[in-house]
Amino acid sequence: MSPERPEGEGMAVSGSAALSRPGLRGREAESERLRALIEGVRGGEGGAIALLLGEPGIGKTVLLQETVSIARAQGFVVSHGRAEELHELAPLASLASGLLHGDPPLLSSTDFAHLADYHGQRIWLVERLAQLIEERSGGTPVLIAVDDVQWADPLSRFALSVMPARLLSSPVLWLLTGRNDPELHGQGPRTTTLPLRPLSDAALAELARDVLGGDVPTQVAGLLDGAGGNPFLAAEMLAGIAASGSDVPEPPERLVLGVRDRLADLRPDTLHFLRIGSVLGRAFSLADAAALCGRPASGLSAEVDEAIAAALLHDDGERLLFRHDLLRQAVYADLAPSVRRALHREAASRLVVAGRSSTDAVPHLLKSAEPGDQEAIGLLGTAATDVIAVMPDLAADLSVRALELVPPHAPMLFDVGERAIVALTRAGRYTEARETGDTLLARQPPLDVFARLQSVLGDTLWHLDDIHELTRRSTAALAAVTDPVIRARLTARQALARSRGRDLGAARETGERALAEAERSGDREARVLALWGLGEIALNAGDCAAAVEHHTALSVFDTAFLPEEAVARIHMDDFDTVRRLLRTAGDAPLRPAMLSWAQGTLNMGLGRLDDADADLVTAERLEADLHVPGNLVNIRVNRGLLALLRGDREAVREHLDVVRATVAERPNTGNHATHQYFEAVVADADGDHAAAAELVRSVQRDHPFLRWRLLRPHVVQAVRIALRGGDRNLAEDLAAQAVEHASRNPGVPTAQGAAAHASALTNADPALLERSVGILLTGPRPLPLAAASADLGHALLTAGDPAATPALTRAHDIYAQAGADVEANRVRAELERATSRSGRRPGSLRPRPDQGWEALTASERKVARLIAAGHTNRSAAEALVVSPHTVNTHLASIFRKLSVRSRVHLARIVLAEGNTGTGTGG
Fold it and tell me: pTM score > 0.70 for this model?
């Protein structure tokens, strides 16, 4: 017996002796676990993922096919697809191979064609695909099976990493097979990983009895040991034994010990045909193989028939397929490397001549192209352009490979290199993009080329937060450029860089010059950059009206910047327009993470703390899905401040740990300031007031406090921290900044009210507090009004003025309504002092539990009721006028708090709550 294989593993388990498909011996335990998953999904336990992992020939496909048959028999809608090694350039090809060809198909070709509307946004494309699956299944359980997922195209892999979580509550079983863990599962349904190990000797003996019948001769058992427990190889050997007879003293010399020996009996023409086919992939068309053979397809019938008769190929009516990938690999490996390369190159050329797309030809070029191959360089570039919107990492790989093929002194080097920098930057591979650009610049290109390369590197340096280098390089390039388009882009890049500097007046002049140059040159990219730069400069300078003007012009010109306009208008207290903007965004394929950030910022302003937190969770998840967590510090600081208001100190610590780790990784000036303020608020809450004041001072290391727009709503709290820490000079400085900011924004109630409030605290002036309350009553933000009312009530209470009671009552009610329990309880204590004189006592707040129906927020209850009533995520989002991504976030929270895993379970709980009458509120 082979020492690597367990003796007992693979023995039949109770109730599974009758196997429905040959080749399942030794897989009884895995079959039972898959059957249990099917029954669980069908029984309403929610979605699940199963991963079948193992080497080629270990039995993954047979087990997948058995699971598909069982699921069909139990009423599942089945999508059964396969990823192909040479099809990784076709977006969604791996998923589409199953979704479009089921019986019945899960999606129609029309459904799939409509996904083209989302071609430029992976997140929205996958969200729409998930919506279609949810709608088309209509509550019927679904099995989505993908074989050989290690070959999946990048967009299918992305979809498989996101959609299980998106369809968490739907009855969808995902069954993926691969040679190793594809790491596609995240915070989605429960995942069952089934590593398929070599068969035990007992299982191999059972397999031999299935094939040969009766007892297995000793010499056959010894021969099977050479299969290493691989069921496919063992079955091939047993087929050879059955065909040649196994009762001879010694096995025949040419008995199948490996696939190569099995090919020896084929005619040379058939063997050549199979070798051509192995180059084209596991599945190939007869026409493509005939073209490579240099013969008409009709002249290959004998070769096809012999290969099928030898059980090497299968004809599915459209294509020829190797019966197993091990067979193809064995044939392919038998080709000399130089022959393989030549055949791949010829295949690419013939596919191009036949009018096929670059996505068909490029996989062969990647295996065959030599330096200087201009056709290959061009096709790689075309393919990169075709896929960059939805598969940016693949586009970067293709662009880099094209650059590698360009001879060092070829005139095309800089053009191909420029495209590589753009693709690498788009893929988030910023360091590699910078190194590629610097390598090209070291070749001392002509001045205009130098300027062009510096222009595209400007985007790279912006994402690297290397503002100093961006400024230095754009200035140098502007001294050399003659092309007006490149000049306009460089000037706009320089304006963006200067938006982070101290002299915002000079930055604004640069931005205005960039916009004028962009208009003269007629270049769209330069215009976008110039308007973006001007908007950022105005917002950083605190000129909110100018920021709205520039960002509105930008979003009209390019709707992808609608979130920037929304955020600028929030700074103007123009909440009604922001609501309209976010409603009009709807399902438009914009930047969903930034839209969620804008929605969260709006909800924070409105005092809707629960909804704001859900929006911020959504924004973080969407950034994580795309592996571009550029806003993580701001998201976690805001979530930490919300957690402090609600009294969730455990969450505060968690958010602070994430912020600290992220700032250590990405220590730019903005991250430093927001991090230091968060640390200050936590220290102040912990009672370390001196340390808190020093941390607020550290916020101003690079720029004044009010320069940091994320912190502007917190200037009054910063003044309060400075005063508690005994740093009066800091408090007066902060109050002066608030007054100056208010002077720049005379029509913004929050700015005016904050200035009066900050000055009132530093001067201990109740009249200014009363003025602040009066101003804030005209604005849209309840929490600043509550803070000013609380301070006014405290001052009046200290003076013995009975007007303290209405001021404190207003503050308490606002805080309580928002869920700011810490502040509500603090004000309640003062209100008790005030009302004890008049006999009125406010009720105390009951903290929200962590689990159960009462743990749900108002918005979560609305979502729960809609889903329980049969709404899809999309229709629930439409009913609530929110993003489907936000509904996904609410559902994940609902399932966690209620400890449920499916819509069926959720519906039962909602029904029970309705019957008991406890589901009030929301």
Answer: yes
